[in-house]
Amino acid sequence: MPLKIIVVIINPVMGETIATNKKAFRDYSLTDRWECGIELKGGEVKSIRAGHVNFKDSFARVSEGQLFLYNLQIEPYRQASYLNEEPERPRRLLLHKQEIKKIFGYTTQRGLILVPTKMYFNNRGFVKVEIALGTGKKSYDKREAIKKKDLQRDLSRRMKKTRR
Fold it and tell me: Which CATH architecture has domain 17-137?
C-alpha cells in the first residue's frame, strides 16, 4: 500500500487579528457590533500586513449617507515611495445602506458613539474593521470594572493554588 502524504499549507495572515483598540473596551460600554470592509488605497494593505496600524483616538461617523473612519493611522509603506496616501485621512467603511441608516439612527437619536474595536483579515484575505456602538463610561464605572477584574484575577490564582 503506497504511503500518502497530505500537505496542508496554512496562511498565517488569514483570519489574523491585526490590531485591537484596547482603549475602546476601557472607556466605553459597547453594545452592538458590525463587521465592515474598509476602502484602502496604494500600499496601505501591505503596511497593514506589516502591523503598522494605530487606533489612537479613532472613531466612525455617518456623513452624506456613508460611513467614515477618522483618525485611523496607517503608516506609509516605505517601498511605495511617492504613491503613499496621507496616514490619517478619513477612510470609507463599507456596509449595506440599511445598516448605515440603522447606525445613523442610533447615533443621532440615542447619542451613541461609533468606536472601532479591532482590525483583522477575514478568511478570504480582505481587511475588515469591527465597529461597535458605545456610551462613554464614567470614572466610577471604570474603577468598578478594575475592581471586578482584580477580584477575578485573585480568585483564579487562589483556585489554581488549591488545585496543586
Answer: Beta Barrel (2.40)
Q: How far apart are CA 88 and CA 31, in angstroms?
A: 26
Distance, CA of 55 to CA of 69 (rounded, Å): 10
pTM of the model: 0.74
What percentage of the chain has pLDDT greater than the value 70? 90
Residue extents of the structural domains in the chain: 17-137
CB 46 within 8 A of CB 77: yes
C-alpha closest to that of 123 among 37, 23, 13, 28: 13
Cell of 139: 470614572
How many helices (H) does the chain have, and how many strands (E)? 4, 9
Measure Cα distances from 119 to 21, 126, 155, 161 in Å: 9, 10, 32, 37
Cβ neighbours of residue 112 closer than 8 Å, sequence gap 6 or more: 31, 106, 133, 134, 135
Is 128 within 8 Å of 53 (Cβ atoms)? Answer: no
Report pLDDT digits (tens) over 110-120.
778 899 999 99
What is d(CA 93, CA 132) in angstroms, rounded to the nearest whole number?
A: 13
